[in-house]
Amino acid sequence: MNPADGVEDRVTDDARHGATYRAMQVRQPGVLELATRRVPQPGPGEVLIAVDACGVCGADAGDIDNADPALRLPRVPGHEVVGRIAACGPAVPAVWRPGRRVGVGRLGGHCNECLPCRRGEFQLCRNQPFVGATCDGGYAEMMLARATGLVAIPDDLRAEEAAPILCAGVATFNALKRSGAQAGDLVAIQGIGGLGHMALQYARKMGFRVAAIGRGEDIADDVRELGAHLYVDVEREDPAARLRDLGGAQAIVTTIGQSAAVAALLPALAPRGTLVLLGAGKDPLAVSTGHMVVGERRILGSITGTPHDSERALDFSVLVGARPWIETMALEQADAAVRRMRSGDVRFRMVLTMRADSAAGARGASEHARGME
Known about the structure:
The protein has helices at residues 7-16, 58-65, 115-118, 159-178, 196-205, 220-226, 239-245, 259-263, 289-294, 307-320, 334-343, 362-371, and strands at 20-28, 31-38, 46-56, 81-88, 101-104, 142-146, 151-152, 186-190, 209-214, 230-233, 249-254, 269-277, 298-301, 326-330, 349-353. The protein starts with 6 loop residues before the first helix and ends with a helix. The strands form three sheets. Strands 3, 4, 5, 6, 7, 14 and 15 form a seven-stranded mixed sheet that branches. A six-stranded parallel sheet has the order 10-9-8-11-12-13, sandwiched between helices. The protein has a two-stranded antiparallel ribbon with strand order 1-2. It folds into two domains: 7-153 and 325-371, Medium-chain alcohol dehydrogenases, catalytic domain (Quinone Oxidoreductase, Chain A, domain 1, Alpha-Beta Complex), CATH 3.90.180.10; 168-301, Rossmann fold (3-Layer(aba) Sandwich). By secondary structure, the protein is an alpha/beta fold. It is built from twelve helices and 15 strands. Helix 4 packs across helix 10 (307-320). Helix 11 links the parallel strand 14 and strand 15.
């Protein structure tokens, strides 16, 4: 029997009769609580997703700690969401049908009306929600989503594997594509965590000479397994000097938000090289204008991407065998998962799962993900 058969009718009927689902929500800033909610019916242009898995991203910590009461708390965090369409509202394109596997990333669906949308720059839409921050996200068994934000999920990826690609994956995939580096060029990845470990895999598979910039020898073997040709431990040597000795990096993709550490790498950029910023720090970035001008170097900000970009990243991951290294926990353990993420004691992405049979043994899932390559 097709698992999608009868899904829409069942969920719509459940909503009509007050059926419920579980969600981890923020009722006041900094506090996650398990709640029971009524299953909603999707409105025009919306779908209801039965969630299978949701990644735990560093941005979730900000959404939890800085939840804005003006945006109507309680709020459900989480923006690396994979599941199946349970029901469709009016005016949803026919390509999105009940039972289809879909995902939603940080950008919750463009409006198709603003000037960036009219230009086809959907990632810059002025009217789209930020999932988990300005609309409810995926730390829940059910979730409403705009159809314009939906991403098709390949059958070759398990939900737990696909979820981190919808943020950490597409962000680094796009950053590398936009960097201007060519196959054979030296590309440095600064920050080896949830984003950086995907960037290393993609950079290696794209044909770059890959340098990983991280902290501590405890991850040296991991970064080489992930694809780095060279690991520079900032606790032992100056990364900018090391990269300059190699002729300079044609691209540096930084995933961290510490402006001082990012600025310290700028001297390592080769002429016409590009620094791509993924970490959204609060402090100003100190830049030597002479260094930038004389070498025609540039600094580029890069947001995650459109649903089409996400589908490209997912397909590339399948094609080259790139997978996130994950550890899974059950939905009701979301608070513990977020604490693990904050501590940095994760290799390299926490994922919440809604299925009890997938949530046992957090560390075992990481080894399984590596074995899928």
